[in-house]
Amino acid sequence: MELAVVLAIMAILASVAIPSWKEFSARQRRDSLASQLTAHMALARSAAISRGRPVALSTRGTGWHSGWRVHLELHRNGRWDANEPILAEHEGDPQAQMVGNGAMSRYLIFDADGRPAQNNGGFLAGSMEVCIPSQQGVTMLVMSATGRVRQEQRQSGCSR
User: Fold this and answer.
1) Residue 150: beta bridge partners?
2) pTM: predicted TM-score of the whole model, two decimal places
């Protein structure tokens, strides 16, 4: 009888804890991914300033969730070419959704002054949404005109 009561209590506690654990785990995964992308943006900006030449972040596949590369940008085309040295790479997370607006949906280029630029040399600023589609909460990466990035937490779901 006592064993049945203990098992019933354990089952109740597990049913309460599992959804909270899934939410916590998804939030940690989302925040970790956003922090890693923010760190690589800072690396690209810093490398552009220290090397005195453009450095880019570009997607490795169909989108940021497929991973990204930080590389020297020799051709100003917003993508990695085989002769461009890679400074850092990240595998991404296929279960995450990472969507940038405008040119930020495909690439980020930092010019020699560390300012974000489009591949045609025009000004680039914008934001990127990082989320896990099955969970609430979004981390927005907002890039200023100087190339610095700040994170904003939002309680909404993925917008797309």
Assistant:
1) 142
2) 0.83
